[in-house]
Design brief:
Oligomer: single chain
Helix content: 25-40%
Shape: globular
Number of helices: 11
Radius of gyration: 19 Å
């Protein structure tokens, strides 16, 4: 088969579409013929040499895919050859075939085509696990989403609105903020021109944000804590603004607030399966009913993965960038 390999750590140009051995499913795994994958920030970090796959995972980038099951390994039940699926991966999505633990498979939601489904697994699992399973966002509370126009952000807006929460977002352009508003965002902050601490304070009459979904890490740590409401919860899922910051523990104590920091990729299979099962139970009906949808910025041939990486690095997108295997849809 062909897959996108990383010839050496570096820029997008190190991604090469080349021949590699076909993967073989083991116990509890299936082999999926990939129709599409999607570009995630973690893929960029892996390409740069900062985020290696966990032991036993595929060495190729790609943390999600959609496609058709072409083989099942021993011990797999509930899935069959020919099933159309999407999947959460620890790697390998940028290839024509990928091995997937059966607990990380999801059926393609009603009303979506197979390519669109590739935009769902990573964002739905990330948002549901962090905003709802860990941070317990409730109806009537305020969620602040940094990077509201990203794949994660566009999904977080929709899911929070679906449960009756108020949503604030940060983004860097009017176009992106306008799109967030179309999805239901109530409070719009241009981080290039406005201070989100001041804007959230004003918009909430001083109450602050009950939950913050943060992709920036160190750069926003102090301001995020200042923005939290009493009993607020800060969920850190990215390090775009650095990995080391100074924490004002006194402010955290005063607000009786909590900070969590998580990633999906290296979690044990059982934890991933539990998250996927929760997403299937709670999120899939919202997609089938049309209340929630994947936001796709554009589709590119998988052989042009380097272009997809460049688009994300330049933040020239709204929603997800898909990588499509030609002729497979």
């Amino acid at each position: 088969m062909k897959a996108v390999t990383i010839t050496q750590p570096g820029g997008p140009e190190v991604l090469t579409w080349t021949d590699v051995p076909d993967p073989v499913p083991g116990d509890g795994e299936v082999l999926v013929e990939v129709v599409a994958s999607a570009v995630n920030r973690a893929d960029l970090m892996q390409r740069q040499g900062f985020y290696n796959p966990p032991p036993g995972a595929s060495p190729y980038p790609g943390l999600e895919c959609s496609g058709r099951i072409v083989e099942t390994g021993p011990g797999v039940s509930g899935w069959a050859v020919g099933d159309e699926v999407c999947a959460l991966l620890a790697g390998g999505g940028y290839g024509e075939k990928v091995v997937v633990p059966a607990g990380q498979l999801l059926p393609v939601p009603e009303g979506l085509d197979l390519k669109q489904a590739a935009a769902l697994p990573e964002v739905t699992c990330t948002v549901w696990s962090n905003v709802f399973m860990i941070s317990h966002l409730r109806p009537g509370e305020t969620l602040l989403v940094h990077g509201g126009s990203s794949g994660i952000g566009t999904m977080a807006i929709q899911l929070a609105k679906a449960v009756g929460a108020k949503v604030a977002v940060t983004a860097g352009t009017k176009e992106k903020l306008d799109f967030c508003a179309e999805l239901g965002a109530d409070i719009l902050v241009n981080y290039r021109e406005q201070d989100f601490v001041e804007e959230i304070d004003r918009a909430t009459d001083g109450s602050g944000a009950d939950v913050i979904l943060d992709n920036m890490g160190a750069k926003y740590l102090d301001r995020n804590v200042r923005t939290l409401a009493v009993n607020g919860r800060l969920a850190i899922i990215g390090l775009q603004g650095g990995g080391k910051g100074e924490l004002n523990i006194g402010a955290l104590l005063t607000k009786r607030a909590a900070i969590s920091a998580t990633s999906l990729r290296a979690r044990p299979l059982g934890e991933k399966a539990a998250i996927v099962a929760a997403v299937r139970e709670h999120v899939w009906p919202l997609i089938a009913s049309g209340h929630v949808r994947p936001v796709v910025d554009r589709e590119l041939p998988m052989s042009e993965a380097a272009t997809g990486h460049q688009i994300l690095e330049e933040s020239g997108h709204i929603g997800k960038v898909l990588l499509v295997v030609p002729g497979k849809d």
